[in-house]
């Protein structure tokens, strides 16, 4: 690997990026709802456990963090029977629209399949629908839960 190459890795193999994952996920989804940083720090630490899930994917170029996604048991409390989910998909602004988001989502889904799932779920605001459909995800449900989200599925091939 040269330092110019983008690497997609399991957070377990690059745990020094855990603070970046915590920072991005907290700022994007938890801070606006009043949760302390420590809350998400504990959730991200769970991705370093011995079992295959939960897990986090990191995109980086050498020492530069670029993006992340997670595979977690549940991402929508109104749909507790659906599991596992790809969640917390994030690419830093400077690196967007280069295909990194799509690549991270694909890696996260494959991590779920490798852990034994035959279907993986993902929820998103409807404006993100073209992005996930282009990646091969199927719309499973619209206007789901309190936030009116799309629910997508992807099946192992
Ligand atoms: C959503 C998000 C993860 C996408 O990350 P990304 O790295 O820009 O994703 P990609 O580059 O794979 O695809 C994004 C778009 O760029 C396009 N694209 C990909 N490679 C491209 C290239 N080389 N040149 C131009 N456009 C390109 C894709 O077709 C896609 O278009 P679409 O938005 O019309 O579907 C990113 O915008 C983000 O972090 N947003 C904030 C958090 C968020 O909303 N997360 C999703 C929660 S559901």
What is the element string, with H for helices and E for strands? EHHEEEHEHEE
Number of strands: 7
CATH superfamily: Gcn5-related N-acetyltransferase (GNAT)
Q: Tell me the Rg in angstroms.
A: 15 Å
Number of domains: 1
Bound molecules: coenzyme A
Extract low-pLDDT stretches: none
Instruction: Quickly name the level 1 CATH class.
Output: Alpha Beta
How are the SSEs ordered, and which strands pair?
Elements: E1 6-10, H1 18-30, H2 37-46, E2 55-61, E3 64-72, E4 85-91, H3 100-114, E5 119-124, H4 129-134, E6 138-144, E7 149-155
Antiparallel strand pairs: 1-2, 2-3, 3-4, 5-7, 6-7
The structure holds coenzyme A.
Coenzyme A is lined by residues 28, 89-91, 96-102, 124, 128, 130-131, 134.
Describe it.
By secondary structure, the protein is an alpha+beta fold. It has a single domain, classed as Gcn5-related N-acetyltransferase (GNAT) (Aminopeptidase, 3-Layer(aba) Sandwich). Helices cover 28% and strands 31% of the residues. The protein contains four helices and seven strands. The chain has helices at 18-30, 37-46, 100-114, 129-134, and strands spanning 6-10, 55-61, 64-72, 85-91, 119-124, 138-144, 149-155. Strands 1-2-3-4 form a four-stranded antiparallel sheet, sandwiched between helices. It is globular and about 40 Å long. The mean pLDDT is 96. It holds the Pfam family Acetyltransf_1.
């Amino acid at each position: 690997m040269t330092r110019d190459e983008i690497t997609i890795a399991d957070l377990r193999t690059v745990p020094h990026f855990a603070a970046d994952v915590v920072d991005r996920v907290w700022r994007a989804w938890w801070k606006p709802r009043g949760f302390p940083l420590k809350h998400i720090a504990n959730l991200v630490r769970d991705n370093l456990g011995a079992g295959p899930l939960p897990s986090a994917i990191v995109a980086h170029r050498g020492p530069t963090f670029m993006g992340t996604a997670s595979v977690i048991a549940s991402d929508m409390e109104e749909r507790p029977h659906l599991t596992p989910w790809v969640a917390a998909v994030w690419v830093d602004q400077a690196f967007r629209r280069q295909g990194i988001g799509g690549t991270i989502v694909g890696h996260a889904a494959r991590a779920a399949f490798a852990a034994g799932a035959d279907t993986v779920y993902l929820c998103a605001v409807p404006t993100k629908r073209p992005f996930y459909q282009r990646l091969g995800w199927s719309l499973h449900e619209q206007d789901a839960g309190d936030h009116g989200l799309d629910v997508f599925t992807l099946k192992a091939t």
